Amino acid sequence: MPTIAKDAQLQTVITTFEMTPGTCQDVMEALVDAYENFISKQPGFIAAGLHVNDAQTRIANYSQWEKREDFMAMLRTTEMRERNRKINDMCKSFEPVMYDVVAAFDPG
Question: What is the DSSP code string of the chain?
C-alpha cells in the first residue's frame, strides 16, 4: 500500500490517462495486468494504486519506487515499452510525472 510522507526517501510517480468511457475498462484491465504480472516484480517497486473517475474518462495511477532510476529502468524494458504502446493506442493521452511529497496530512 502506498505511504505518503514528507520525509520518505522514495520516488513518487503520478500518471494520468485520458480515454473515452468505451475504452476505460480495457485500459484498466491492461494496467492491472501490467502491475500484477510485470511492474510489481521489478527492482525498486514499492507500491501503487489505480483510481478511475466516475465518468470513466480518466485513470490516475500513483506509484512509488525506491529510486528514480528504478522507475526509469522499468519503463525502458522491452516488455513495458510494448505494453505502453498498446495502452497508448487505447488512450487520448497518458503522462507519467515524477513528484516529491512536500506535505502530508491526516486527521490526527
Answer: -----TT--SEEEEEEEE--HHHHHHHHHHHHHHHHHTGGGSTTEEEEEEEE-TTSSEEEEEEEESSHHHHHHHHHSHHHHHHHHHHHHH-SEEEEEEE---------
